[in-house]
Amino acid sequence: MPLPFLKFPCVVRRKILSNLNYCDIFRLSMCSARTLKSIENRTRTPKKVIYVCRDNQLEVEIYDKHDCENVHSIISMHRVEPSLFYGEEIKINIGGKSIQCREWSDILSWRLRKMSYSLKYINPRQGKVLQALQAHINSLWPNLPLIKFEIDFYRGFCPSLIDSKVKDIRFAFSNMNKSMLESILTSHSNLERVSIAGQFNGTLGADSKLMRVPSVRCNVVNNSSLTEDLLEHFKGNRLTLSLASNCQKAVSQLIKDWMFDAKYPNLKTLIVHLKIGAHPFKNITKNLNGVKWDKYRWPTEEELGTNHDILGLFDWEKSYDIRQKDTGKMATVNCKHDAVIFFVRDCQNQ
Amino acid sequence: MTSPASSSEVKYLIESSEGNTFDVSGAALRQSNTFNAMFLNIGADGPIPFTDYNEATLKKVFEYCEHSVNEENYSGPKHQDDLSKWDLNFFNEMDQKMFIDVINASNFLDIERLTSYCCERIARMLRGKNTQEMIKVITLPTAEELEAKQKVEEKKAAAAKKVAEKAAETAEKTETLEELPVQQLVQTTRNKLTRKYLSFSNE
After folding, report:
1. Are residues B52 and B151 in the same domain?
2. Any bridge partners for residue A63, and if so which?
3. A–B: how many Cβ contacts below 8 A?
4. Are residues B84 and B182 in the same domain?
5. Is Protease included in the keywords of this UniProt record (chain B) (predicted)?
6. Does B138 contact A35 at a Cβ distance shorter than 8 Å?
7. Of A6, A16, A90, which has the smallest distance from its Cβ to B122's Cβ?
């Protein structure tokens, strides 16, 4: 005799759900529209949801609220050719839409090294499934604190498909240009973090919306004009540049401008990594009248805006504390041959 | 029958849906928060009616309560693997129908420990399954059932609408009935006054 899950009292349903992990809850919510309705907003909310959009594949990852290391890949949807659409046909409910799918045996998520529940479909438009998935997750966990998108391809991808609640986007495809970036930043003005992991073509200019995003991470890959643009015009809090080349002058100018002209009032962290073989950084801290770091005040994760792993990359004995001329704000600079880290001390919280 | 005393030897009579009564010790009954809220302080003068549940279900629930009287205080749900042999036997003896009745009764009586174990057991049935397997475990209403339910709801709505319309009609009628005597009264007084005036003017 099957269990009448929907007929159980609300308290019982809630207790059952509290014993299930996010993957089980998600699979249960796909049973029918009524099941989704009965469990929406009745489970613990995850800390973060990441949509990974690849060409013909959508994957959703969930980060646990209490244990950030505990990541689940809750579903992986593959768009396939009709010739590959074999197996037992099933109808699943995603975001109030009934989608015809076929199950694939659970596939190993290459990012998480975990098994992921995989379905295949032959819908000609991937965007339809993406929108349904977003609607489903938003109704299941309406108060999600952080939604992130990772876009690994651009062909046919429409920025309007991305939910307006998204705060963090990572672009991981090559040949990105200013118009693509600006169109996404215009339609999603609430973005708090943008990461450009693929190659960016062209320049940005001072008027770019990227300059006002609070946290930017960019693989500048030999694009020195992009590096200089970002270092000169960035108005956000945290800037991380990777694979940079020959930017000694621009970095030291930024630090001097911060110190003597009180420019970059919002800047909290600047991290620049050079690519292998690039012209190494010489002593940037030389003419700054810095005081040798006192070894006691380690930077907090809050100050760095990144995880503490980065601390191991620098020899902190060689750090210097500098003071902003007019305001008295303190910052720490550490320079090694292939990287520079500059962060403003959060004196109020110390 | 019983007094509000909290001695474990006090017995309470419980009445099931069949009208049968049976004894349950006070200590066992006190595991039910519903009982504690309703009867613990004031006591019960007769059998306590739990008439939504049959005798077999109630006996099963209180069998669990009797057993767990001597266990240490409940501290959150235990994992199914940590259950004692007696607990496992208790759950394995039940068929699915009885299990569902026990969950509902234990939820009504608010016996936290039993409800938690039952819910953990259901979660175990669902854990690790894909959507199709889950659909087999839980009963989902079929399209016909949903249609029938919708029809019933539509009928109910139509009936409610009719009742509301009738009520509105009767209200209107009463309003006119109430208005009539007043108008009549006004008319008669008016007639009287004109008659008096005429007689006075004739004089």
Report:
1. no
2. A48, A71
3. 92
4. no
5. no
6. yes
7. A16
Asked if B135 and B142 count as a contact pair (C-beta separation under 8 A), the reply is no
Over its C-alpha atoms, chain A yields an Rg (Å, rounded) of 24
B3 found inside a domain: no
Q: Could you tell me the pLDDT band of residue A118, with boundaries at 50, 70 and 90?
A: confident
Domain harbouring B108, CATH code:
3.30.710.10
My answer on whether B130 and B195 are in the same domain is no
Query: What's the rounded Cα separation, in Å, for the pair A288 and A268?
Result: 18
Tell me what pLDDT residue B57 has.
92
pLDDT digits (tens, 9 = 90+) for A246-299: 888 889 899 989 988 888 889 999 999 888 888 888 877 777 777 887 777 777
Among B113, B137, B161, identify where a domain stops.
B137
Contacts B136 to A, Cβ<8 Å: 2
Helix (H) or strand (E) holding A137: helix A126-140
Q: Which domain holds residue B184?
A: 144-203
A24–B129 C-beta distance less than 8 A: yes
Band the pLDDT of B3: cuts 50, 70, 90.
Answer: very low
Q: Which residues contact B11 (CB under 8 A, 6 or more apart)?
A: B2, B23, B24, B25, B26
Note if the pTM is more than 0.90.
no
